[in-house]
Amino acid sequence: MAVKDAPAVAAPAPAQKSAPQRAMEKLGLVRDIDLALHLPLRYEDETRLTPMSALRDGDTVQVEAVVREALIQGGRRQLVVWLVEGRHELLLRFVHFFPSHQKSLVPGALVRARGEVRGGFLGREMVHPAFKVVQPGAPLSDALTPVYPTSAQLPQAYLRKAVAAGLRRAPLDEVLPRGVVPRGLPGLREALNFLHHPSSAASLAALEERTHPAWQRIKFEELLAQQLSQLTAQRERARLRAPSLKARPGGLHEQLLAALPFTLTAAQHRVSNEIAADLRRPQPMHRLLQGDVGSGKTVVAALAAAVAIDAGWQCALMAPTEILAEQHFRKLLQWLEPLGIGVAWLTGSRKGKARTAMVERIASGEAKLIVGTHAVIQGDVHFAKLGLAVIDEQHRFGVAQRLELRHKLAEQKLEPHLLMMSATPIPRTLAMTYFADLDVSTIDELPPGRTPIVTRVFADNRRDDVIARVRDEVNKGRQVYWVVPLIEESEALDLQNATETHAQLSAIFDGVAVGLLHGRMSSADKAAVMAEFTAGRMSVLVATTVIEVGVDVPNASVMVIEHAERFGLAQLHQLRGRVGRGAVASVCVLIYTSPLSQTGRERLKAMAETTDGFEIARRDLEIRGPGEFMGAKQSGDALLKFADLAQDEVLLERAKAAAPGLLDAHPDAARAHISRWLGGKMEFLKA
């Protein structure tokens, strides 16, 4: 008798994740330690009840009272509920509500409601309060109720349970040796338990301002992990080997210095010497060259390139935009080509045979200096002998691009030297944290002949006054930038776009050449417009922020920025730096649209008060925080979740001082601490 085959049993399908689970993963809440370190944004005080007789407008309080009446009112269907306590009444108003609200908020029900009290047409009311129906004598909470950072798919109640469970399970043993943590701070588990469930006696101000000792412990831990990771990266790099690049007597470096049509400033000499000393060492240089707009960083990079090329190696210079890359290309070609140095040009728009020819010149070593955008690090580009990589405006590249560059540089046996340049000066606390593994060189003086730039702020109802000033400058033979933030109509933003503004100004300045430049133009069209403006054949250039960096037209004396409140502070400072590049008195005009937000007001005030790039950077860091300041948002992770660089400098100093000894004497403890706090983010810190 034949035996029938048993029916195949299908493998169980993987369980579908719920919306809250997917939302938790998106927030990075994967490990128990992630949940334990997901700290509250603020707290609600549900530990006490406020009698209705003591209510004051503007207070956020919790009341307990009986429902007298509940009904649906008005054409827009609002649920209104009257609570009564003795002779006093309070109205609860729900503009959006569910059937469950109507079922629970019935006459006679005892309700606890928490919200902001305000005066209304029918007396005092709370709009959309948090509420629950309770039994008489139900106990109050004995701890402040945490409110966590969350998303629409992740209700607070679900998140509170998940965090409480993660906090119970998370391994929170003390891994730091005695004496590392500042005295007077609680243990890690004690600090976290307190921050998730503070007692009703805790100071709300100390919690929300993050000055409580429990907060100080968490911030110290985070800063220490960050310092340890940077120090680890620095030491790993010190073990790597790089080519020793030395300038020859009478070689390219000296020839370039002699051929330059200007004399270097003392600051340029100093930083050039610092870079040359690094290049001579057999360890890879990792240096940040910072200097204000127009301080002359490009020539310092050219001198470093000359040293590398003279020693028989290639140099790659990478810029974030084609316009900036082309600006560098033209300058470097002008300085280096007469010395017999082959320069290659590589951007995303260069395709076909021209690109193939460039890639072949780079691979053969014929091209000694390679200038371009991120196209320089694409997969098909291979260097013969790359000795030096220069990245301009490095914070403008995403974290992923910076990591890609590091991996690209690691293709050969010897690591290239790395020079990063920034016209956004790095405040001291930022240099101590995110750039702790870098050596920093600063050009702190401008070349002679630069004129101070006066900054004026106007409301948009004074646009005619600005146009009159522009007309005066054009009549004197000067040139003007007019910058706008968008290039086409947007329903979301009521902004004048570049195309419209160009048409308006062309009509107003009849007989004057008015150009248009924006990001959606082809590279050839952009280059043609810039060539006309640079040559002085165009008086007014209407542009988006593609002209933010690198453009150098000494005859341009006015920079007008429309909707200035929409731009970041560093961006405004960079745009302002496009004028004042010659001997002509220059002005930057910021036109804003009311009403101004607090952030917008702070930005415009800073611009009007100072032209010092370091002071601008300090204020920008205060306004935006380090993640946006550094262009680190692309990583999807805030660089510091808890510590505040403006407020926690003392803790930062302690963490910086403790890191080397901890790494030397207790390497296992240091590794465990880094893993707890950073998990898989170590790569981003290396970028």
Automatic annotation (TrEMBL):
PROSITE patterns: HELICASE_ATP_BIND_1, HELICASE_CTER. Its EC number is 5.6.2.4. Keywords: ATP-binding, Coiled coil, DNA damage, DNA recombination, DNA repair, DNA-binding, Helicase, Hydrolase, Isomerase, Nucleotide-binding. The keyword Isomerase applies. Signal peptide: none annotated. Residues 278-443 form the Helicase ATP-binding domain. Residues 462-622 form the Helicase C-terminal domain. Pfam families: DEAD, Helicase_C, RecG_dom3_C, RecG_wedge. Residues 221-248 form a coiled coil. GO terms for biological process: DNA recombination; DNA repair. The keyword Membrane does not apply. It catalyses: ATP + H2O = ADP + phosphate + H(+); Couples ATP hydrolysis with the unwinding of duplex DNA by translocating in the 3'-5' direction. GO terms for molecular function: 3'-5' DNA helicase activity; ATP binding; DNA binding; hydrolase activity. InterPro entries: ATP-dep_DNA_helicase_RecG (IPR004609), DEAD/DEAH_box_helicase_dom (IPR011545), Helicase_ATP-bd (IPR014001), Helicase_C-like (IPR001650), NA-bd_OB-fold (IPR012340), P-loop_NTPase (IPR027417), RecG/Mfd (IPR047112), RecG_dom3_C (IPR045562). SUPFAM superfamilies: Nucleic acid-binding proteins (SSF50249), P-loop containing nucleoside triphosphate hydrolases (SSF52540). Belongs to the helicase family. RecG subfamily. Plays a critical role in recombination and DNA repair. Helps process Holliday junction intermediates to mature products by catalyzing branch migration. Has replication fork regression activity, unwinds stalled or blocked replication forks to make a HJ that can be resolved. Has a DNA unwinding activity characteristic of a DNA helicase with 3'-5' polarity. This is ATP-dependent DNA helicase RecG. It comes from Sphaerotilus montanus.
